[in-house]
Design brief:
Chain lengths: 614, 91
């Protein structure tokens, strides 16, 4: 197995091609695993979030570059501007495919440019180009202009919007028209480096070790993924089809995680979207048989827009979380966020927090520039959203993230900030599925639902390869932490391979082992896949331990340890201490939250031991 | 005979619809599921059917009055509608 890393230094404008050590590729695969291996060594412990020493690491994996289902995906990692700890973030689209076809497994962006630039990659031609006229532009014109400038070559563009340029800490990196590497503010780091975008194209043949087996697996897995009923539902209605289930199982956070039920869910669901604003244009990611992305248009009224439609998380964040049942307004807010390049989960959470603080009298009209921040007020939401994007008044404070904002506002507002380790929670409630609680508490990037993708497994699937031989109930406490560990390990392998978590309904560790073996020629089995994921997860943990993260940070907001008001899960509270105890034992972590020396050595992380243990 | 409204939210992939079924009293959840499988046939994916010929509740779960429902829950004749919802997490 081989791979090339592009090392791009923006300070001195040098570009170097390096061979990635074979053992890195074998033991960390690519994606977020390879990123962890490099950045653990290359980001010094005392690095500030916008220091030159903070690096952006774009990476793909051994399954990219061909037609493996959902393999247009890529990863981006760094020290998070929002949380100050580990961040890996992934996005789909086509960037991952073209990067591999250009001949690269990773790009590390170092230093800072003194003027706006974009990176142009066309096979062996790699150069920094002037982006002065692109600075300040929103995402669509940026991508469109770069594509024109690159002679309309087929390729992919990742870019930041004005939010990244303004260093708003929930700024995303956006690609292919609306796909987002969200959470944690990687777009702000890109902005601090004055890197506006990356264009990539290529036509090199990607070598897969066993071409015959590879082709057969691609065909079989594509059929399996595309044929699964969940994929068919997402193809028909997008990810916000999940709102249908939520309307009955109480999984969608409502009124800032206070309520357990609401009569607005179905109005903002995937089926509602299909009946109203959905257009027929195909929008999709490379080699994906599901095609869950939406293209929507609001033709009349105050929320006119056209573009990529809101995903489930966005529908939750700008919908149930703030009691807004107007789907057109949600599509408009989503488009505004995408064009400026900010994370919709964090932004929706910020609006919800302001509404609750306003309701409680902690924030007043004086703080909100005279806006009535009452639940469900769409006009107020839009004004506050623009204040965030313009870094104006209270919006400037919110742009620093809710943990910081609540520490400034005080007066008890910290009690209803829904975040873990500084990352605002996604749109799933641990009181509906207890696995979310332990997942949020222990994810290396903070409150996150895709490290691993527990929503797919909790209450639904076994993972016999990891010794999980029974389906646990959605509210079970006992045994749930062991499921979460297995899912996190598998998820780390998926995010390092690199493909989409939505395949998890069909593909598991056994199938991934088959794919990796065919792609690399290295003989992986399911246990090796899970062990690789465990190595990656623990290295990311060690990255955080070195920054001071410990067991005290593995917790949940107080509200999640109390009951919802009403709803199907009223009175049900996850037993977090019990789950954490089981988790730490299952992970071989010490009571202080560090992996034991023995575990680190077992995983081949010997180089970490001396950093964590003097 | 009693009429029960079934909200089939994903029991048939890509379809969300309501339907009425009629059963002799007293009815049970098992009878409802058998009736649905009889009516909808192979429109219901095989992944959703257990070896006992019932609905797999890990993949599609029944809900009554906002609560998950199972075979040991109270008799169906206490209510007039039931939801069958596919297990999908969103993302």
């Amino acid at each position: 197995m081989e791979g090339i890393l592009l090392r791009v230094n923006l300070s001195n404008k040098t570009i170097i091609k390096e061979d990635i050590p074979e053992d890195y590729l074998r033991d960390y695969l690519g994606g977020c695993g390879l990123a962890a291996r490099y950045l653990y060594d290359e980001i010094p412990v005392k690095t500030g979030i916008f220091d030159e020493n903070n690096k952006l690491f774009f990476s793909i994996g051994p399954l990219n570059g061909g037609s493996f289902p959902t393999s247009g995906r890529y990863n981006v990692s760094c020290l998070s501007p929002l949380t100050g700890i580990w961040l890996d973030s992934a996005s789909s689209g086509k960037f991952g495919y073209y990067l591999r076809r250009a001949g690269y497994m990773a790009i590390v962006i170092e230093g800072k440019s003194d003027r706006p630039v974009y990176l142009y990659i066309n096979n062996d031609t790699v150069e920094l180009r002037d982006a002065a006229d692109l600075w300040g532009k929103t995402i669509s014109p940026t991508i469109s202009l770069i594509q024109k400038r690159c002679s309309d070559q087929k390729g992919s563009v990742v870019a930041i919007g004005p939010a990244g340029e303004k260093l708003i800490k929930m700024a995303n990196i956006i690609n292919d028209g609306g796909r987002a590497a969200g959470r944690g503010g990687s777009g702000a780091l890109m902005g601090s480096k004055m890197l506006k975008a990356i264009f990539v194209t290529g036509n090199k043949k990607v070598p897969f070790a066993d071409e015959k087996a590879w082709k057969q697996l691609v065909k079989d897995f594509t059929n399996k993924v595309g044929g699964h009923p969940i994929s068919q539902a997402m193809k028909a209605y997008g990810t916000s089809v999940a709102m249908v289930g939520v309307s009955q199982n109480g999984d969608a956070p409502t009124k800032n995680f206070q309520l357990g039920t609401w009569d607005g869910y179905m109005k903002i669901s995937g089926p509602a979207m299909a009946q109203t604003i959905l257009q027929k244009h195909p929008v999709g990611c490379h080699a994906c048989p599901t095609q869950c992305a939406r293209y929507v248009k609001v033709e009349n009224g105050p929320y006119q827009m056209e573009g990529e439609g809101p995903e489930y998380e966005t529908v939750g964040a700008f919908g149930s979380l703030i009691l807004n049942d107007n789907l057109e307004s949600i599509a408009y807010m989503n488009n505004l966020c995408n064009e400026h390049g900010v994370d919709t989960i964090t932004t929706g959470s910020a609006i919800a927090w302001v509404m609750e603080a306003y309701e409680k009298g902690i924030l007043t009209r004086e703080d909100t520039n005279g806006i009535e921040m009452i639940w469900g007020n769409i006009d107020a939401t839009l004004v506050m959203l623009r204040m965030i994007l313009d870094r104006e008044g209270l919006g400037k404070l919110l742009g620093e993230g809710l943990r910081y904002a609540s520490s400034v506002v005080g007066k008890g507002s910290e009690d209803f900030v829904m975040e873990v380790k500084g990352l605002e929670l996604p749109m799933h409630d641990p009181r509906a599925f207890s696995g979310y609680g332990i997942t949020y508490a222990t994810s290396p990037r903070g409150g996150c639902h895709v490290h691993g993708y527990i929503g797919c497994w909790d209450g639904r699937f076994k993972m016999p390869e990891a010794g999980i031989t029974e389906v646990l109930g959605p509210h079970a406490d006992e045994g749930k932490a062991l499921l979460v560990i297995a899912v996190q390990n598998y998820g780390a392998a998926v995010s390092s391979s690199v493909f989409c978590h939505f395949t998890s309904y069909v593909l598991g560790p056994t199938e991934l082992a088959q794919a990796l073996t065919a792609a690399t020629g290295i003989n992986y089995n399911a246990q090796a896949v899970l062990k690789t994921g465990e190595r990656i997860f623990n290295l990311q943990r060690a990255f955080n331990n070195r920054l001071g993260i410990s067991s005290k940070d593995d917790t949940l907001p107080k509200r999640l340890l109390t009951s919802t008001i009403g709803g199907p899960n009223e009175g049900i509270i996850p037993d977090l201490p019990k789950q954490l105890k089981e988790y730490y034992t299952g992970r071989s972590w010490q009571a202080d939250g560090r992996p034991t020396k023995e575990k680190l050595i077992e995983l081949g992380l010997d180089f970490v031991v001396e950093d964590l243990y003097d | 005979m009693t009429e029960i409204t079934v909200h089939a939210y994903g029991l048939v992939p890509s379809k969300f619809f309501d339907m009425q079924i009629y059963l002799n009293e007293p009815v049970s959840l098992k009878e409802i599921e058998k009736k649905l499988i009889e009516i909808l046939g192979n429109k219901i994916p095989s992944e959703y059917i257990t070896l006992d010929g019932l609905i797999d509740h890990t993949q599609v779960f029944p809900v009554v009055s906002g609560k998950r429902y199972d075979y040991d829950s109270p008799n169906v004749d206490q209510f007039k509608e039931i939801w069958f919802i596919m297990a999908l997490a969103g993302g």
